[in-house]
Amino acid sequence: MTEQLIAKILQVLSINMRWMTWNLFLAFIPLALSIWLFRNRRGRSWVWWLGFLVFYAFLPNAPYLLTDIIHLIHDIRTIQSVWMITLVLIPVYFVVIGAGFEAYVISLINLGYYLHRIGKSQWILWVELITHALCAVGIYWGRFLRFNSWDFITQPDALLTRGVEELLGKQPLIIILVTFAILSVLHWLMKRVTLGFVNNRSNRMAITSERTNNF
Questions:
Q1: Is the pTM of this model over 0.85?
Q2: Where are the domains of the chain?
C-alpha cells in the first residue's frame, strides 16, 4: 500500500518536474546576478553594465511563474484523486510559484539596497514601478508570444517588430496593465514580509550575541 502511494506521488510530481525545474532555474538567474551586482562593492565597469542588462533581460522569468497557474488548472482536470490534488499537487505549485516570486522580490530588494548605498534612495519606488512595468511586458511576450530572454540576442528584429506591434492592441494593453497591478501589489506585500523576517532574525541574533557577551 505504501509503495503504491509513493509511486502515485512520484507520478504526480514527474508530470511537471521538467518545466518547473527549468523555470525555477531561469528565475534564480536574476537573483544570483542581483547579489553580484548590488551587494558587492564594485565599480560600474563595462562588465557590470553587461551584467545589469542581463539581469533585466532575465528578471521577468521570476514573476513569470505566476502565470504557470494555468498548468495547475489543467492538472486538476487530469488527475482524478482529490487527495493527490490537495496534498501533493497544490503544495508543489505553491512552493514553485512562491519561490519564483520571492526571487523577484529579493532581487528588487538588492537593487533597492544598492540605490540606497549610492545615495539614490528617492529613486527606489520609481525604479520598482518601472521594473514592474517592464516585467509585465516581458511576461506578456513570454506567455503569449513565446519569446525568451535570450531572444534579445538571437532574434532582436522579431522581438522589436512583432513584440512592439502586439503592444499596440487593446487586449495586450489590458493584460499588461492587469499584470502590472498584480506585480505591484504582490511585491509590496512580499517585500514587507521578507524585510520583516530579515529584521526579526537580525534582532534575535543581536540579542543572542549581546547575552553571550554579557556572560
A1: yes
A2: 2-207
